[in-house]
Write a structure and sequence with these properties.
Blueprint (H helix, E strand, L loop, with lengths): L1 H138 L1
Length: 140
C-alpha cells in the first residue's frame, strides 16, 4: 500500500511537473504577448504623437490661411469703403460743378443781356451823336 501511495504521489508529482511546465510555457507565451502589446502600445503612442503634431501643424496652417483670408477680406472692405467715399466725394464735386455751371450760365445770360443793352445804348448814342453832328454841321 505504501508502494501504491508512492506511485500515486509520483504520478501526482509528474502531473504537477507537467502542469508546471505548461504554466511556464503559458507564462512565457504571456510574456511574449505582453512584449508584443507593449511594442504596439509604443508604436500607437508614437503614431498618436505624430498625428497630434500633424493636427497642430494643420490647425496652425489653417489658422494662418484663415488669418490671410480675413486680412484680404478686411482689405477689400477697406477698399470698398474708400471707393464709396471717393464716389461720394466725386458726386459732391459733380454737384458743386453743376452749381458753378448754372451760376456761370446765369452770368453769361446777364452779360449777354447787358451786352445787348450796351449795343442799343451805343446805337442810340451813335444816332444822337450823328444827329448832333449833322445839326452842328448844318449850323456851320
Amino acid at each position: 500500500e505504501t508502494k501504491l501511495q508512492l506511485q500515486e504521489t509520483l504520478g501526482a508529482l509528474e502531473t504537477a511537473q507537467q502542469h508546471e511546465e505548461q504554466l511556464g510555457n503559458t507564462v512565457s507565451e504571456y510574456k511574449i504577448l505582453i512584449d508584443q502589446l507593449e511594442n504596439e502600445k509604443t508604436r500607437y503612442t508614437h503614431d498618436a504623437a505624430n498625428l497630434r503634431e500633424k493636427l497642430e501643424q494643420s490647425e496652425g496652417k489653417s489658422s494662418e490661411v484663415n488669418n490671410k483670408y480675413k486680412e484680404q477680406v478686411d482689405n477689400l472692405k477697406r477698399d470698398v469703403a474708400q471707393l464709396k467715399d471717393e464716389k461720394h466725394l466725386e458726386r459732391n464735386k459733380n454737384e458743386q460743378l453743376n452749381v458753378e455751371i448754372e451760376e456761370l450760365e446765369a452770368k453769361c445770360g446777364l452779360y449777354k443781356h447787358n451786352t445787348e443793352k450796351l449795343h442799343k445804348n451805343f446805337e442810340l448814342e451813335v444816332g444822337i451823336t450823328g444827329v448832333l453832328f449833322f445839326k452842328v454841321f448844318k449850323f456851320c
